[in-house]
Amino acid sequence: MKQVISASRRTDIPAYCLKWFMEQIREGFADVHNPFYRGQVRRVSLLPDDVEWIVFWSRNYRVFLKHYAFFTPYNLFFHFTILPKSALEKSGLSIPEALYQMERLAALYGPERIIWRYDPLVYWEDKSGRHTNYNPEEFESLCREVAHLGVQRCYFSFAHPYGKLEARFRNRFTNGRLLQKSIEEQKTITARLNAIAAAYNITLFSCCNDALLAVPGVAKGRCIDGDLLNSLASSGPVSRAKTPTRQDCGCSKSVDIGDYVAQPCPTGCLYCYANPVWR
């Protein structure tokens, strides 16, 4: 059985490391460091005979769209994060440019191979008051545009208060503090999100928060879903075995080839669980 390559939860490979990835494909493998024990290195085959799917994660597919033909030997699936610009990102695409890229991906591969990530929702406070990157009107506008492109899956989550995130907010903002909504508050917000998404025939998927499945219409997120991938490909099946990366994760087995340390992400999102660079 061939494997699924995740490229990558650990950094934005399509935006910043695609040439590296292409070179590794030419060599036929990538040496991947264990993110917790750097001395442990695993050699991962990238040969088409061993890889059925590459699952990309990105906020910017501009470079990929220049080189998409290189990846013809593989089945491709795309996570595309599109959020309104906020004070939490150092850089990022404009919404029109992101939607243009999504349109191109949909034309090349089909909208069923794209997940739109409106993720994560963040609440914080600083000396000027309380803030969020979530705006219902902006979300509805994005739903309208994404639905027009045929994309019908939206993954979302609320930012988890990991210690490294809380430290970033303290360092970035005067009197800065990451806020955590209660589960009941999250359910109320989720119900509003779902009502908006459903009006455009978009299914809302909760990533790593099963408590929100109590909201009618919300589905469990499986960012790498062996069943879905198998339904999309006419070639060999991939593993459906669940290998969660954290609590409530529903993901199927895959191999992530990114590197938190060697490939920090210049987009610099303060809420990123990987290694954003803000200079």
UniProtKB/TrEMBL annotation:
It comes from the Bacteria. It holds the Pfam family DUF1848. This is DUF1848 family protein. The lineage of its organism: Bacteria, Pseudomonadati, Calditrichota, Calditrichia, Calditrichales.
